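Protein entry
_____________
===
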Amino acid sequence: MVLFIEYPKCSTCKKAKKWLIDNNVDFQDRHIVENTPTVEELKKWIVESKKDIKKFFNTSGLKYKELNLKEKLQKMSDEEKIKLLSSDGMLIKRPLLVSENGILVGFKEEEWKELLK
């Protein structure tokens, strides 16, 4: 079973969820704002994803822009970035797909097919 972390109002999340259902993928659904990933989860997933922490930020989100994170992130340590991500689910790029085969950030159908085959 995979963990699907989403913001239900997000159109990309809706598309990804439909894809999971259409492809008969058994998943556990988790609301990214009501149950925001913890510092420990994020640390683990960032390492497992082999992606830079910056890839976990929702750079097109209002919160990201309001906080002027494009500038601030350059001066922050990885620890500070992870702590910031865990403080507000709206800062995290979504959806997140967590499986024993890997971690995916955002929805790119080809990546999801590859990971879940």
In short: Residues 2-116 form a domain with the Glutaredoxin fold (CATH 3.40.30.10). The chain has a mean pLDDT of 96.
